[in-house]
Amino acid sequence: MSGEFGGNDGFYSSSDSYEDEPPLLEELGINFDHITQKTLAVLNPFKAAEHDMMQDTDLAGPLVFCLAFGGSLMLCGKLQFGYIYGIGVVGCMAMYFLLNMMSLTGVSVGCVVSVLGYCLLPMVILSSSAVLLSLKGMIGIVLTVLAVVWCSFSSSKLFVSALSMENQQPLVAYPCGLVYGVFALLTVF
Amino acid sequence: MDVPSEFRNPGKRRPKKGGTKPQLYEDTSMQPPPSEYGAHHGQGINMEGYNPSGYGGPPGAGQFPGAQYLNDPMANMAMQYGQSLAGQGTDFVHKNLEKYVSTSRVKYYFAVDTTYVMKKLGMLCFPFTHSDWSIKFNQDQPVAPRDDINAPDLYIPSMAFVTYILIAGVVLGTYNKFTPEQLGIQTSSALVWLILELLILNMSLYIMNLKTDLKYLDIVAYCGYKFVGMIVCLLAGMVFQSTGYYSTLLWFSITIAFFLVQTLRVKILPHSEDSNYSRGSKRSLYLILSISLLQPVMMWWLTGYIMFTK
């Protein structure tokens, strides 16, 4: 390392910084521990969430889930990535506006996008099951309603713990349910 | 279906594009445009202190392939410009929005809790047992709905509006007529009718020259309450066909008319009695009646065409 330190060309001077650089994942901001933690918090809606979990807003997990959702819809024959993006943006903007009006402390857009994206996971499960069985029958309707309720329950739990709005959880759950309901509408019809 | 996604993607990929095709950025940014020269020129300007950490010399071979995009000074400048533009944009929007819709007042209308929402929904479905319709607090200050059941709020109307769009989508889906564009079409047409109704009501309040305490947002709230009834009508129509639809429509027309008459009577009438003209109270009575009777018509108008598109 010291031999290359007095680098004559520009090429070698950067290899010194190459060894001092932080690892790639840390630079990108992807922290696998947090991702698994948050995913488990979504998958288990009855366990209480910690307050700090949502403080680092990471968008890698939500992006993966959205792509997985679009991919499983594609397997059903519906190429609707554009609609998912559009509805996602509109839903996130609406939730951001609503949560800023309703809570005492404000909330940032990144936090809203992150929470809504993580809680899309049950929708991904629903749309992958749509490949195997048609969702328009009775079982399909029950599964859809269950998935929407699961999504909205976990997202409202995460929002309430991040914003400390304890007695308003059903009020936060309902708009989340509406957003996920639109996604369910895309999946079913 | 492809058009919207292509339209949206360039916005997402903007920082990378600035690195590979400087010409695209040079037209919109403030920097001078020469293309070959642009990289060196950009480096010179960058040294003046935008982002020295990004300019780490030519990228080392061992780094990940995308590094040269981030190290490219043009991309850095593009990102800085984009960030400052976004900051300016939000400031601009906030300053101008504050003039029209004051955020702190709107916040009052969303200060609800679960018990208020439950009671208000019960009142919308069955208002005949409620006896006291006046708002107990001082009228000059907007009162948070949490404290008084009779205060209007904006949470229920906005949620009811979005639910109405969703349920309309479900109904269309059961007729196999659903495409995602339908959601946009339904939303925009319902919004247009709502805005038209609000305009007419505001104009008539202004023309009739009544002294009321009704704020603009109160009227929005009262016009939004009918969406609750519309949702139940659509659901009943989906399950019980025509008979269910018409009977729930009738019931909710009666309830929303009664609800509005009682609420507006408290807000409009007491002030017009201050004037010496006895016509004043008659005018306000006509206005209240016409507002209350307009709601069922709008309910029928906005749900009928969904139910009967076969």
TrEMBL record, chain A:
Ranges for region Disordered: 1-20
The UniProt entry lists membrane topology as: Multi-pass membrane protein
Subcellular localization is given as: Golgi apparatus membrane; Membrane
Q: Cite the Yip1 domain residue spans from the record.
A: 42-185
List this protein's GO terms for biological process: endoplasmic reticulum to Golgi vesicle-mediated transport; vesicle fusion with Golgi apparatus
Q: Hey, which family's this protein in?
A: Belongs to the YIP1 family.
Quote the protein name from its UniProt record.
Protein YIPF
Species: Magallana gigas (Pacific oyster)
TrEMBL record, chain B:
GO (cellular component) term, any one:
endoplasmic reticulum membrane
Topology in the lipid bilayer is annotated as:
Multi-pass membrane protein
Give the keywords, sorted: Endoplasmic reticulum, Golgi apparatus, Membrane, Protein transport, Transmembrane, Transmembrane helix, Transport
Positions of transmembrane segments: 154-175, 187-207, 219-239, 245-264, 285-308
Q: Which InterPro entries match?
A: Yif1_fam
Q: Where is this region: Disordered?
A: 1-58
Q: Where is the composition biased (Basic residues)?
A: 10-19
In the record, biological process GO terms are: endoplasmic reticulum to Golgi vesicle-mediated transport; protein transport
Compartments it resides in: Endoplasmic reticulum membrane; Golgi apparatus membrane
- State the similarity comment: Belongs to the YIF1 family.
Role noted for this protein: Has a role in transport between endoplasmic reticulum and Golgi.
Q: What is this protein called?
A: Protein YIF1
